[in-house]
Amino acid sequence: MRYPAWKYILIVLALIVGTLYSLPNLYPDEPAVQISGANAGIKVDQTVLAQANAALKQAGLPFHGTEVQEKGALIRLDSNNAQLKAQEIIKTALGDGYVVALNLAPTTPDWLLAIGAKPMKLGLDLRGGVHFLLEVDMSKILEQRQETYTAEIKAKLREAKLAYRAVSDLPNGLTVKFESAAERDKAQPLLTAEFRDFLIIPAAREEAFFLDMGFSPAKLKEFADYAIDQNLTTLRNRVNELGVAEPLVQRQGASRIVVELPGVQDAGEAKRILGRTASLEFRFVDWEHSGAVDGIAPPGTELFPFKDDKLERVLLQKRKIVTGDRVVGARSGFDEFSNPQVDISLDSRGGKMMAEATRDNVGRQMAVLFVEHKQRMRIEIDANGQSISVREPYVEKTVINRATVQSMLGSQFRITGLDSPAEAAELALLLRAGALAAPMYFVEERIIGPSLGAENIERGFHATLWGFVAIALFMMAYYHVFGMISVFALAANLVFLMALLGMIGAALTLPGIAAIALALGMAIDANVLINERIREELRNGAAPRTAIIVGYERAFGTIVDSNVTTLIVGVMLLAFGSGPVRGFAVIHCLAILTSIFSSVMVSRALVELIFGRRTRLTSLSIGQIWKPNSAPTASK
């Protein structure tokens, strides 16, 4: 009975690392208020923090610990009620230029953070977080489709040299106006063959001839489903960029999407990133006209402000070269003069469109138009005299960059002229995550506090604690010294599990607490198998040393087989489950791995230390042993 030295070293290292990385869970987070800029260009410095502190002191609200972080400022408070009051006070003091969000601040000591030790992440049901309900504007997706088809119809008619007067919108389609019935009749077969998504009907009204092209109900539903699916994908990409553990992004009803971000570290940034329906349009600066006349753009052009300058305007052509949906990659960086920039990669179609547009326009100026759908709330009085909030969507378009085309461009180019690295990073994130198929607006925003979570955590902790105590008492009463060894191995198993959850960043949810409680029973089951196997060998007349060796060897195969089959089920839950099911499966799978290590290796090492170095081992303290055809005797 000599255990290899490398196994002792491995176990000691595992216990040291496990203890260190499970310690942060003893330091719970405390309520705080996060202050960040309404956009990436607004900085939060000591001046802003001092203004917030002054407002809190004037209101007589106590707080402790203030700090300026990379993405904003943090003010720590004593309770959840103080946190809610502080949010309202700071919002009033700072105005609309800043986002004041509820948050949780870590209290883990710096020396633990220095080695990368962090507490377990908690799910929305335990820690709280933010809940957003967003509504997709379906009318915009129809407008976008109409705009796209309008350009394609005009191009096809020009290519076929068929005369037409105009292409305009209908409520659920388009209409093409012709000068005569003969021209309409020539165009109808072409449009019917090329555009099978439409129901095309000839019509005559207002002394003109038309082809009314209506979308079928199936096509309209396809547009709506595409908008929801594309926005779901984009939101998931943006949430992944935020690094939120165990988020929930799913469809609700016909036109709404639910986003839940548990334990989010920067609620202000999350809302800003998720809610921004930002896209880019690349257009040429108009060179055919001298400029706007009395603020009115000439036909075929549009007038836009340049960045944040309210006076400077840029006259752009209406024709878009490429839009943001052709962007497949975006990365922020710096140019040769250390100014922030964004490197853009287009898909093959976008690269071809850019090359065709710039080939014959070298020396012209091209502008980057930043398009963002926003909303403002307006207070109105209803028929009953009650004040109601009315959402008023609007579109904000700003030229963020204009530069001279030096040579023909392709799929790779860059955007410069940005105000700060933070602005460049945020623009790259939005483009990299993908364009939204249609704008979305916040219908509901709720901060889910951790009060219910605290109660769940407390109950889960007590359930685990008293379950552990009950198991420990039973094992020590039934198996004596071997029972105490099993209890130590079980405690080591919990330490390893807590450390792993903190190291990999897995989120602990309410089902996860149930998985931990279940892991206790599964882990002790392995020690019961080992102890019973040793007792069986003793009953069969084996010497104590032989009984220990054979007991561990024969029990090991059974332990592995039973745990592997259970692990397979856990992997299936992890692969095909979602939300709480995945949270349960993650802890379930980790607990199986840690229980095998602790139940077999840790307990065997303790047995070797206690019994393996004795010169004469005549008995084992492993409880009652019943020999065949004899009265029960106690083995000491």
The main sheet orders its strands as 2-3-1-4
CATH level 1 name of the largest domain: Mainly Alpha
Total domain units: 4
Could you report the average pLDDT, rounded to the nearest whole number? 80
Question: What spatial form do the alpha-carbon principal axes imply?
Answer: elongated
Can you offer a commentary on this structure?
The structure is a single chain. With 636 residues, the chain is of the alpha+beta class. It folds into four domains: 203 residues, Multidrug efflux transporter AcrB transmembrane fold; 76 residues, ACT domain (Alpha-Beta Plaits, 2-Layer Sandwich); 82 residues; 142 residues, Gyrase A, domain 2 (2-Layer Sandwich), CATH 3.30.1360. It has 15 helices and 25 strands. The strands form eight sheets. A four-stranded antiparallel β-sheet has the order 2-3-1-4, with helices on both faces. A four-stranded antiparallel β-sheet has the order 11-12-6-22. Strands 7-8-10-9 form a four-stranded antiparallel β-sheet. Helix 2 crosses helix 3, helix 6 crosses helix 8 and helix 12 packs across helix 13. The longest helix is centred in the last third of the chain and has 54 residues.
Summed up:
The protein is an alpha+beta fold. It has helices at 5-22, 46-58, 80-94, 110-114, 124-127, 138-159, 181-194, 217-242, 267-275, 348-359, 421-433, 451-504, 510-539, 544-576, 580-612; strands at residues 30-37, 64-69, 72-76, 98-105, 121-122, 129-136, 166-170, 173-178, 198-205, 208-215, 248-252, 256-262, 277-284, 301-306, 309-317, 322-323, 327-334, 340-346, 365-381, 387-404, 412-415, 440-448, 507-508, 624-625, 633-634.
